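explain this:

___
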Amino acid sequence: MEKNPTQIVSELGSRLLQLSRPNKGSLVKSLREAATTLSQIEQPLVTEIVNKKKALKLLEAELRPLKNSILKHDLLKNRDNDVSLLVTVCVSEIFRILAPEPPFEDKYLRDIFNLFLAEFSELSDTVSPYFSRRAKILETVSRCKCCLLMLDVDCHDLIHEMFNMFFSVAREHHQQNLIQQKSSKMQQRKATTQQSQQSLFNDISTIMNDILKEEASSSLVDVILENLVKEGQDATPGANNLASSLIKSCTDTLEPFICSFLTSCFMEKDSIQSNLKDSYHEIIFMVSLNAPQILLAVIPNLTQELLTDQVDVRIKALNLAGRIFAQPKHCHGEIYQDLFAEFLRRFSDKSAEVRMAALKCGKQCYVANPSGNKASGVLTAIQERLLDFDDRVRTQALVVACDIMKFNMKYVPLNLISEASERLRDKKISVRKKALQKLTEVYQDYCDKCSEGYMTINDQFEQILCKILLLCCDKDCKELWSQNMELVLSDDLFPRHLPVDERMRHWVQCFAVMTHIHLKSLNSILSQKRRLQNELRHCLTLWREAKDHNIEAVQRKLKSYFAKLSTCFPDASKAEEFFQKLDQMRDTTIFDALTLLLDELTSTKAQIIREKFLETIGAKHHLFDFLRILSTKCSPNIFSSEHVQYLLNQLCSNTSVNTQLKAPSIKLLLVILNMFPSYLRGSEKQFLKLLKENVSVGDELTEALSKAAPYISVNFGDYYPALEKVCLEGTRSQAKYAVSAIASLAGSSDKFVFSELCEMLIDSLLGGRNIPTTLQSLACVGQYSVLAFDSIYEDISRYVYQDFQAEPSENQPPCDQSSGCCNSCKLKIYGLKTLVKSFLPRHGRGQVVRKIDDLLNILKKTLKSRGLDGIRSCDDTGANVRLAAAKAVLLLSRKWDHHISPEIFRLTILMGTDSNAFITRTFLTKLHKLLTENMIPSRYACAFSFSLSGPCRDLQDDSLRYINGFIRNATREARAHRDLDQGESLTESPAYMIVFLIHVLAHDPEFPSEDCRDEHVYARFCGPLLSVLQVLLGNKETAPFLFCIFRAIKRAEDAVYACITPRLHILADIGYAAVNTLKCIAVTSPEAPRSILLPSSLYKLSVTSMSDSQNKKKSNTQNALEQSFTERVVHIFQSQISMHDQRCQEDIPAVVLEDRVLPSLLRNQIETSLTGSTEASKNNTRCSRKRAHLGLPEKSTTSREKKNSSSKKCKTVEGAEHISCNSISLRTVESEIPIKKLERHSTCSKESVGASASNNVTSSSHSGVVSAIKDISNHGEAIIGQRIKLLSPTDGCFYPGTVERFNSKSNAHKIAFDNGDVELVCLNSESWETLSHESLGQQELLGKETESFGSRNCVPEITHAKANNDQKKKTTTKQQKKKMPTKLITPAGEASVSEVTNTSDNIVLRRSRRQRTS
């Protein structure tokens, strides 16, 4: 009969008990058999408690022998691993079978638990063959709750050790390993038993839970918390998971201990002895993950940390809060509402570091819960920080916002995209750079997702591209200029392998939201790319043909090309240096590759060529980086012929293009073709179809066609019918481009084509069909085919002149509200434009030989009259016709300026004073554009001055902006011309406009009457002059030019009407006084040019003389009064100017004149003889004398009466009808002066005083004035040491001095004057005589006497010689110590010929040929 397992165990126990000293082998064999048999014994399946106890007693009796044998042989303390393991298994099975009663006495339990712990410590060895037995022991101990007995026997140290042991052996893979090893046995078990098995991890957790729930302690909690936050090599995920599991399962038990510890960390951190006090934030975080309700009592303390004054504490608390709220699938925002509210407020913390930390935490929160209830609040806080006042915070907010957009692109709020893209315009360069980097990454991801179909094209994301384009307008950062933005568009903006059609979808959508500013920026980038490609083509051609040309000439051209090409690179200086190296290399491989890239039209092939080229030269090439950028700029990578073909295919397809995207598609197509017309090659048929179907954009398409004509191959007959129809039936704009396209496509047959077209157009014109378009077509034909237009010119001109003389119809419709013109005036304007354009043919299209006089005559009549002289226009719109006439004059001045008379010039300039503000603004805008493009002479810039001083503030602002732009451009060009020619021309200076402005003002019929003494009247009338002087004097170098201009005008007379000359002198005086007042300087600068060119058609040389000193005295007195009058005029103007004009003068530094002499003008000077004044000069003298009475109290007459009286006396000077290129030359007579001291003692010589007293300037007794003038060109060093006296042409006075040295190179003598000045003078061109016969005493006396006269008394006021001598004796002593007066206005009536050629009014300043020595 087979024995049952209990009997077998009993017998095994009895045999072991009988052995006195069993060996290991017998022990192992017996214990293994016992362990196997014990595993087969189950507790009795008895439901009644009484019966179960009886059954357990019977089992205990059967197991007692084995139990006694284990105790007898002291097997609980056996050190052998095999024996110890088998004993532990048997003991655990006995515990299981006899549970719930403990099978051993308490005194043995400690040894038993030591056995358990010893085996538990080996659980980390999952590959051990005994792992399954140890796991079984753990399972048994867990199920039987054996460890609770440890509490009964006070084994707390073992419990603490067990807890540490469990944390050290816990592994995440325990569960899987255990399942794999038990699989074979589990297959033999019943399904219910199989389901009841627990994992090793759960068994450990169960044991620990049982102990904690039974008797938790702070020491055990410390062990749990330590393993919860343990870091470093000792930390294991299994331990962390075990600690988390305990916190979850024992929440109620552990809560008091955890809260007490954390509260102490907040309140009494320094008094805590635990090492965990520094990790309390991490403990809070881990606890919040497992049992957030535990922290409800702790969170208020964390909230208080967010409000503390210590920044580092706030940042740590903020990071903790951010981690808590950043956990996915947790609703901590709802649990800790107060903490979350304070967390959001930290986004606006006073510390920038805290705000930056909040942004990082906010990103984590949103990424963890993008659809949570609190996500919107986090996004709002992040968005607000994009406008933070600290650039570091804005940068961090930008990075966070872009990361959020990349994470959740499909559902990101649109306003966040908009605000982030606005950082591209941030005031800080660093923020703009970071915005460009991050937003390009966002845009790339956006393009990829659109290509993959994950999302559709979005206008807000396309705004990123638009705003990136605006970066090329950045003036502060060179790295964001168009040179770099081109590389961004080509390399960084789109994913590299994004197909052409996908790129164009984005570009079309971008054009749908693009404004004109964005379009302008894109055009600037594309135009720079085109400019580089064109210049590089010329450069490559020059490189190849260098052997056949002059080497020096080639090098000069190459240098010029390099300078232009380098401007297209971020670092122009380095780029130019690289081009120089490339020139020295002359590598044909590089040249050929660049040529291929320039000729290639498709981006796909260009990319292959570029990659092959870069691979060929290698990354180690010393110019690799430069050639990489250069090859990129040469490639059609932004747009190409493939892009054009895609657009045309889409536009020609009726179903493939959204109706709303048709307009932006055409707009994009036109932008590409306008910049790169060659890209149309290969798509000619589609373009023709588009041209025929889209009449609304026909003008733009025909413009693109005209530009692309040289690059495409088409049959002219296919295009001509459509273009001809446009010329006859289209709009004026369409007709303009249609004629241009015909001219481009017709080629050599354009003469015949235009002849036929002219006949059709004339028939249409005379037939009254679509007259505006017909006139436009005729005008354009006249520009492209002079011969064809000449044949019909008479018919057209007759038609236009008749139209100008036609009376406006009473039944005509009212004026068009959009243009402000009636139909009659429109036709006049269109006809005028037709005639004007016919005189301005395109380059290479022929030369006009017909006379322009008739056209100029009708322009003059149009500008002068309002219904007079045969010009008829309606009262409301006559200003528009005059505006068209003024614009016509401006355009004609490009090629016909020498035919434009002074009167037409004046009438054109006065359009700036029109009462209609719209007319004035339109005229000034056109004028500004033409001046900026250097299309017209710069003299027309004086028109800005009239609106600059006008009553309209908007026009003042516009005029100020225009004139400042003109001054900048003119100054830059003048300097470039000076550097090139090594000379300076005053006519190129922006200050030269004053010459023409004074002419216009002098001929103004509103000029104050001759006897007007009201300074306010002059201040108002001279407003244009004074206003423009304010602007000009913003440049310190302008003052000397202005002085010279005014002095030259003072010595000239009007070339048109002689009686106007006094007005010129009055204006010159006022201007001179204004410069002195506005610049706080009263002496001439050594920078003043030696020659001043005045236009001979406006001015002529004034030659006057005076023979009696009485007139000198009178004239001198009048000038003194006149000077005070002009100064009052200027002061009145200053007091009346607006605050806007005052701001224009703020912070303008005082003039600090550079001590240098500018090169003389390379112009012929008109010299006049010393004798013989003409009748015209006499008349001029009389006019000047009348002008000198301005300051006297005389009876005033009205300007109208003065005009009438003057018109009778004045006659037009013959030969002055037109403003020619000839000019009169007036030489300045100045020398350099000290910069710091602007005063010096200087007087007339003793001889000149005597000459004045005798009233005989030219008498023989005064031989030094004229008769003793000598030519010493051959004297050189012969006169060193001699005493001489030098004639000053300014005042007719002699200055005595001694010749000290002679410089043969400059042919100049060093002269030490008696008043202390030392100058270098070229005596060849001076008037002088020797004083060698004088005694030393006489010389000393002369020196003293010369110091007694101020510059204003160089021509003394003498009525009697004796009176003068008496007065001189009284004033000599006082005036010896006085400084020289700072300004002098020479009497116009007494100027001799030498004085006319001298534009300096200061006695102490001699001719500019002299050089001051130190």
